[in-house]
Amino acid sequence: MTTSRADYGLLRGLMQAIVDDRDLELQVVATGMHLSPEFGLTYGTIEHDGFRIDRKVEMLLSADSDGAVTKSIGVGLIAFADVFSGLRPDIAVVLGDRFELLSAAIAALIARVPIAHIHGGETSQGAMDEGVRHAVTKMASLHFPATEAYRRRIIQMGEDPHAVFAYGAPGLDALRHLTLLTKQELGSRLDFGLESPTAIVTYHPVTLERDSAAEQIDDLLAALLQAKVRAVFTKSNADMEGRLINERIAAFCRERPADYRLYDSLGQTVYLSCLHHLDLMVGNSSSGLIEAPSFGMPAVNIGDRQRGRIRAANVIDVGYPVAEIVVGIRQALSPVWRAGLSGMENPYAGVGDGTVSFQIKERLKQVELGESLLKKRFHDIGPDMDRQSTPRSAT
């Protein structure tokens, strides 16, 4: 199940690995922002990549208030009941912490379909994603966290150590398999000049801070002007106050089209090419922590949305005030500071050989289906919690 451009880019390698295996069948359910014209109707990207979409679940209401999000979850829950009744999958794979996943996970639990959850065990203390992520973890039977620390956290939540596998972040496989654009090709694709310094900027609502988005995005935009940094913006997610953020950015860009541009969706190749060629990242996207380190790209991480997540040396944490953001941007552009990133390791890369998706596919293929997978028991932490054993395999 994929909800947006973001999780599709991370799932794409796994989807292809499943298609390439003759013993497995891929079913794809697209929902959330994929089906919204406001966010570029990105389900078309899935089809363009050669995947068949088996079901499209319309669930987003045309507002981003807390009431609308709650009602969207309810609409999705009803729709996913029909999805599981019709498709009857053996395993449901979900990634991350979007609120849409609650609908899918609850419906899968009731339909007795085991859930495999990717990117569990992480923390993001400024967003309600934290609660969604951990709730899905407790409903899931198989877990694929991105780091060993996150694996330990899932085990701390009572999950079976034999069912938790820390292979790395699957989205980073694309760095081994995709051909990135040259800087000239990137500028042409964006229809935007890439003179330095240019940032890629993504800012999402800090959903546990009520009525804060307008002031926060205005401060970020003011900081870009004060620091004299141009920017390629990607849209905020369809979270509470996400539309307000996008409206503010759109107005800002309309007034300064030569230096600032907002895109509904960049797609994986263009987005990763931006990380390769642009000068820095600004905002509060998890991409600054997970993907950006692999490019040695500095990431000015604003506020609390990513608080608690493991970070590499490329991350510069700043508060919301304009002055703090400007200081962070200037540090990120400092040649002396940037030189210190040479040889930096990405904590989310696993062994770094581009096989994370393949390893997840192999584990899904080998797992023994049946009641034993569904009937989870709470595993108390014991002296052997650090031991990662091989789970029961199908014969």
Brief rundown of the structure:
With 395 residues, this protein is an alpha/beta fold. It is built from 16 helices and eleven strands. It is 41% helix and 11% strand.
Structural domains: how many: 2
Q: Flag low-confidence runs.
A: 388-395
CATH class wording of the largest domain: Alpha Beta
The DSSP helix count reads: 16
Class inferred from helices and paired strands: alpha/beta
Query: Would you tell me the overall average pLDDT?
Result: 92
Number of strands: 11
Which fold name fills CATH's third level, the topology of the largest domain? Rossmann fold
Query: Gyration radius, to the nearest Å?
Result: 21 Å
Into which percent range does the helicity of residues fall?
40-55%
What does this structure look like?
The chain has 395 residues and is an alpha/beta fold. The protein is built from 16 helices and eleven strands. The protein starts with a helix and ends in a 21-residue tail after the last helix. 49% of the residues are buried.
Descriptive keywords:
16 helices; 3-stranded parallel β-sheet; alpha/beta; Rossmann fold; 2 domains
